[in-house]
Amino acid sequence: KRILPCAAWVTGQYGITDTYVGVPVKLGAKGVEEILEIPLSDDELRALQTSAGHVKENIAKLKL
User: Fold this and answer.
1) 12, 21, 33, 36: which could join 28 in a potential S-S bond, CB 3.0 to 4.6 Å?
2) What is the pTM of this model?
3) What CATH number did the domain enclosing 51 receive?
4) Dihedral over Cα of 64, 22, 18, 46: its sign
5) List of E strands, 17-57
6) Domain range for residue 34?
7) Collapsed DSSP state (helix, strand, coil) of residue 8
């Protein structure tokens, strides 16, 4: 098992839901086993949430 940055489906981690975003994960033989929430500064958290929001907006524009 390894800890790696990975685009993973988030379900509330970092205050983000229902989208893929790059986060640290515990990766095992069958894929993502756990999303690890590392401590972020307020600015870092805000930037991550803003980035995830842009991803959601762009997906909505594509009507996927």
Assistant:
1) 33
2) 0.84
3) 3.90.110.10
4) negative
5) 17-28, 31-35
6) 2-62
7) strand
